[in-house]
Amino acid sequence: MIDTLDAEKTYIVGGISDLDNLLDYVEDLYSGRSVSGYTKLNFVNWAKFEAHTKTTGGRHMAFLVQLVHDGRVGDMKTRVRSTTEKEQDAQYILSTVHMARGRQWKRVKLANDFLYPGQRVDGTDKDNMQRSWSQLDANLLYVAASRAMEVLDISECSAALQCMKNYKADSISVAIPSQPSDPFPHAMV
């Protein structure tokens, strides 16, 4: 999501160091350089990392593979490094679900990185090979959606839209704003 926002008006919950280090790690791994500096991941080569992003445990890192394939890691590092350091100065707040726990914002927009019932880890929907939607998937989506106090924007979140369709929740009113009308920041989870 950060690539669609004005980085200078964006705050990243928890700071940028982990994300910055992760981008360096991915770039080094892809280029075949030593990756000993980043201790949270321990892949021996790019192929192993890329394969891991197609598993349930690694699907949350698939965006990194896309950044590398699109040649946009350098641009993303620049954007991350130019975000604001103070949440109160931000128009947009980016957060993982885990970092958002216990917090709330007036407006929240859900990212399109949640699995939905029947979706395979590789992103396809094949009737004869559907994986079950885990309790973890449901919990993550619930935590993210429940961070909104007034407005929840699910317009780009396939999982939330699919859940509403599957569970006949079309009577639920979900506001999808086109422009913010007040100075409170938007949180992206």
Helix coverage percent of residues?
Answer: 25-40%
Strand/helix succession: EHHHHEHEHEHE
- Helix count equals 7
Taken as a percent bin, the fraction of beta residues is 5-15%
Report the end-to-end length measured between terminal Cα atoms: 9 Å
Mean pLDDT: 80
Q: Structural class of the helices, strands and pairings? A: alpha/beta
Strand order of the largest sheet: 1-2-5-3-4
Radius of gyration: 18 Å
| Sheet with the most strands, sense and barrel status | 5 strands, parallel
Uncertain residue ranges: 175-180
According to DSSP, the number of beta strands is 5
Principal-axis shape: globular
List the helices and strands and how they pair.
Layout: E1 10-12, H1 17-31, H2 46-52, H3 62-69, H4 73-81, E2 92-94, H5 97-100, E3 105-109, H6 135-145, E4 148-153, H7 158-166, E5 186-188
Parallel strand pairs: 1-2, 2-5, 3-4, 3-5
Helix pairs in contact: 1-4
Based on the model shown, name its key terms.
alpha/beta
How would you characterize this protein structure?
With 189 residues, this protein is an alpha/beta fold. 33% of the residues lie in helices and 11% in strands. The chain is built from seven helices and five strands, in the order βααααβαβαβαβ. The chain has helices spanning 17-31, 46-52, 62-69, 73-81, 97-100, 135-145, 158-166; strands at 10-12, 92-94, 105-109, 148-153, 186-188. Strands 1-2-5-3-4 form a five-stranded parallel beta sheet, with no helix packed on it. β3, α6 (135-145) and β4 form a beta-alpha-beta unit. It is globular.
